[in-house]
Amino acid sequence: MPHLFSGFNQKQQSGKITNGTFIISNTKGRGSTTRMLNYCSQTSEAPSNCINQFVSVAPPTPTPTLSNIGLLFDTSTFNSLFDIYGTGFRPIINPPDPKYKPIPDTLKQALNVGVNRWSKFLSYTPDIVNLIRTFPTQVGYPGPLTNWNGLILLSVELQDYPPSGNITWVSCAPYYIDGLATSMNYGFRLFVNKTLYINGTLQISQNLLNTIITHELGHALGMPVGQSCVNGDATGEELLPNIYEGALANYESNLPAYNKDYFPKALITFNTIGGWVNRSHAHTGPNEFIPLTNDDGGHFCPNTHHKLDNGVVNPDIFYRGFYNEIMIPYIDENKPLYISQISINILRDVYTSWQGKIYYNYSTNGGNETTGIFYQPDTELIEFF
Q1: Quick one: pLDDT band at residue 286, thresholds 50, 70, 90?
Q2: pLDDT digits (tens, 9 = 90+) for 153-207
Q3: Does residue 305 contact residue 289 with C-beta atoms inside 8 Å?
Q4: Which range, of 51-55, 71-75, 349-353, averages the lowest pLDDT?
Q5: Beta-strand relationship, 228-229 and 238-240
Q6: What pLDDT, on a 0 to 100 scale, did the predictor assign at position 279?
Q7: pTM above 0.85, yes or no
């Protein structure tokens, strides 16, 4: 049975499944001072001491040569201890309380597999690394970000998910620099369904867990794209994601979409591989939109979508669904999923505006960009091809 992925975006939107449909819950997703205060109030008899320790404890020992080149994830944080049955966070004092545990080896393996997959194609740009390192203490990261070395695993929490026809296995919440509307993601949290592990034993195959975590790391990297405004001011002009609403409305759905004006690299790729199709050739491309799912654009649309043409559905003009792209909203163990150039280029289109300058998050790693990239239409829905 296919299962649906669950991923948080910048507002921590988690897709939980009931009878095969998304139920979206929204909470504030940026790491914040409020979260730090709440955490210390709940976990310490002396919250002020807790906060002081949180701020003053030195960050984890960085790699011997601290570089700003080729960074994506800080895999050393996968070896941390976590309050996996409580807050999920790492200890803030030494020695840690016995409640802090290492994550299961199978989960650590899946994280490393997912990191290796994304790292074939992407790394942070040196400029954004240097900028992130100028910011002070953030939630889940003790001390200033001076030694930040890629996305940090901030917390791992084993949770009870409500029973349903399909199962939410893992959710991911990216954390952005506190108090700003930028694309500067410094870490992420994982929420894991307890039913994945019974008596410490993984209940699904390692390969399936690898795919699930690869998908969730796509959310950690910034899919869906969070809000980025001029000079990081949330009250200012929105630069990204500028999701289009209503552009792809038809009688059955009203899908959000990424637009060519804000995601030019991704749209070029989408058109190049045939994401837009006009059977009658009555209207020429290229396409201006990439269709997303209705969970605020949390995933790529997995179904073929017909567009209204002068208020009428034109069966000759449609957008291909993403059949086996890693960022579609469901998984079937019998169907492998792949990181496509569309995902890569959406992330390459993401940038931060700060003090009058533009900082792009990601660059490609210069390898063979066709490796591991695969796309095909949903043959069930466009079988007349």
Answers
A1: low
A2: 999 999 887 655 556 789 999 999 999 999 999 999 999 999 999 998 999 999 9
A3: no
A4: 51-55
A5: antiparallel
A6: 56
A7: no
Burial of 346 (0-12, 13-18, 19+ CB in 10 A): buried
At 283, list the tokens: 């209207």
End-to-end CA distance of the chain: 27
Residue 184, both tokens:
């500067």
- The full 3-state SS of the chain, as one line of letters, equals CCEECCCCCCCCCEEEEECCEEEEECCCCCCCHHHHHHHHHHHCCCHHHHHHHHHHCCCCCCCCCCCCCCCCECHHHHHCEECCCCCCECCCCCCCCCCCEECCHHHHHHHHHHHHHHHCCEEECHHHHHHHCCCCCECCECCCHHHCCCEEEEEEEEECCCCCCCCCCEEEEEEECCCCCCCCEEEEEEEEEHHHEECCEECCCHHHHHHHHHHHHHHHHCCCCCCEEHHHCCCCCEEECCCECCCCCCCCCCCCEEECCCCHHHHHHHHHCCCEEECCCCCCCCCCEEEECCCCCCCECCCCEEEEECCEEEEEEEECCCCCECCCCEECCCCCCECCHHHHHHHHCCEEEECCEEEECEEECCCCCCCCCCCCCCCCCCCCC
Q: What's the token pair of residue 87?
A: 């807050």
Reported confidence tier of residue 28, pLDDT bands at 50, 70, 90:
very low
Q: Which residues have a Cβ under 8 Å from the Cβ of 116 and sit 6 or more positions away?
A: none
Report the candidate in 288, 289, 284, 283 with the shortest Cα–Cα distance to residue 310: 283
Q: How many Cα atoms occupy the beta-carbon half-sphere of 88 within 13 Å?
A: 20
* pLDDT tens, residue by residue, 59-99: 344 444 567 778 999 999 999 999 999 999 999 888 889 99
